Amino acid sequence: MRAVVIRRYGVLPVVEEVAAPEVEPGGVVLKVEATGLCRSDWHGWQGHDPDIVLPHVPGHELAGTIAAVGAGVSGWAVGDRVTSPFICACGTCEQCLAGNQQVCLRQLQPGFHYWGSFAEYVALPFAAVNLVRLPDALDFGTAAGLGCRFATSFRAVRQVGRVAAGEDVVIFGCGGVGLSAVMIASALGARVIAVDTNPAALELARSYGAAEVVLSSSNVVPELLELTDGGAQVTMDALGSAAIVQSALTALRPRGRHIQVGLLPGGVQLDVGRLIGQELEWLGSHGMPAHAYPEMLALVASGNLAPDKLITRTITLDETPTALAALTNGTPPGVTVITP
User: Fold this and answer.
1) Confidence at residue 263, expressed as pLDDT on a 0 to 100 scale
2) Is residue 268 a contact partner of residue 260, using CB atoms and an 8 Å limit?
3) Who contacts 97 (Cβ-Cβ below 8 Å, separation ≥6)?
4) What is the Cα–Cα distance from 260 to 177, expressed in whole angstroms?
5) Which of 27, 42, 83, 105 is deepest in the core (most CB within 10 A)?
6) Does domain 2-150+288-339 have CATH number 3.90.180.10?
7) Would you say the C-alpha torsion 170, 176, 180, 183 has a positive or negative sign?
8) Does 3.40.50.720 match the CATH number of domain 162-284?
9) Does residue 147 contact residue 124 with C-beta atoms inside 8 Å?
10) Using CA atoms, how far apart are residues 191 and 134, in angstroms rounded to an integer?
């Protein structure tokens, strides 16, 4: 199969002919119909993820058709249209048995723990707990984004952040995760304020439901405090920046909630005194398990959520290495989908 292969961290990957994955007992192999280009892929390419072993094929947002079914798998057949969370849970550990597959103790992530979906085929383990059947009306490009950015934002906003109608919610970073969060929080009835350095991204945020958009600067907090009459109930770092974290915590009103989704490979220093004194909540959120997809898919089917509108660019496998490298200069507005 053809795949995007990383052979050295930070060096432009190339599209090569490599061996296709073999189906394992309990798993399936998918023909990749669409896969998303995500900032997490850039972090992996830069060497920020200790689980990656070179040479490596990135890619973890995916949708496709089942090409092979492993021994012991029931209820799934070749040709079925599916997607999967980017966290493939084992289904049997303590956390999985409690329904928390997003923090599975033996999780396997395509594009990180093993070769991913920037390829014509990808393997998915533990099919019984990780496959999500796609409605016929949902196209593969839209479905690919559900596996990471949109699903991650849905769980972060609705389940972890507990966003409610009427609350002020400040979203920092308007890439795929941030714009998804804008759309979801707005659909829940929150008043959303989007913050980004890119005016084009802010225009997209406004079109997806943001009530206010703010061009980011080193002095953004006073403007946010004024817009929220003293502080937001919820803030979210959808990019991953130590500076954003500080701004997000300072922009909260007492007993506010901060949701951290963006990765922080360089670490961060928190004002713990403020965290304690204002009784703020710091909430980490990491993906969403397959069993939680039906609520999200129902909202998509009803038209209350429209993740297809987030897609701003579709590229080929051959264009992917350059697009991955371009993330060094910032995340482009919207979602980029790759069609292998």
Assistant:
1) 84
2) no
3) none
4) 11
5) 83
6) yes
7) positive
8) yes
9) no
10) 31
Q: Return the domain boundaries, the chain.
A: 2-150+288-339, 162-284
Return the number of other C-beta atoms located less than 10 Å from residue 137's C-beta: 8
Tokens of 337: 């989908």
Beta-carbon count within 10 A of 302 CB: 8
**For residues 76 and 128, what is the distance between their CA atoms, to the nearest angstrom?**
9
Coil, helix or strand for 213?
A: strand
Rounded Cα gap, residues 36 and 117, in angstroms: 9
> Could you read off the pLDDT of 70-97 as tens digits, one per residue?
999 999 999 999 999 999 999 999 999 9
Query: Which pTM value belongs to this model?
Result: 0.91
How many residues does the structure list for the chain? 340
- Residue 11 CB burial class (10 angstroms; 0-12, 13-18, ≥19): exposed
d(CA 142, CA 309): 9
Question: Tens digits of per-residue pLDDT, 207-220?
Answer: 999 999 999 988 89
DSSP helix/strand/coil, 84: coil
Q: Which two tokens stand for residue 103?
A: 């923090």
DSSP 8-state class, residue 235: E
SS3 285: coil
Q: How confident is the model at residue 265 (pLDDT cuts 50, 70, 90)?
A: confident
Contact criterion met (CB below 8 Å) for 292 and 159: yes
With pLDDT > 70 as the criterion, what percentage of the chain qualifies?
Answer: 100
**Beta 81-83 vs 121-124: how paired, if at all?**
unpaired
